[in-house]
Specification:
Length: about 120
Amino acid sequence: MAIGDVECCDILHEHDDLKRITDGMPDEDELYDLAELFKVFGDSTRIRILFVLFEAEVCVCDLACVLKMTQSAVSHQLKILKASKLVKSRRDGKQVFYSLDDDHVRSIIAQGRDHVLEGEKI
């Protein structure tokens, strides 16, 4: 049987390992937080910012210059990235420098990029 383009089972039957899978599911709050994190990665401007921060700790004015954006627009995106614990900031006098919060951020982007590039090889 098919619903639209999705193939479905012809009979309804719960398999033995379904309880194990259900018991291993994260709670709804954790799933919500994970979905929110992935939403942050859904903006190409934020991805561009992260790629710059892969290379170096930079201030907002340098990010704006590299990305050809206003400092205000960059600051708005950095606020979202910081709230999601993807970037951190450090004040040095009148300047604020941003960097990746930890190596998890680099891993998430690298794996996503590998996945995208793998699809291009087909």
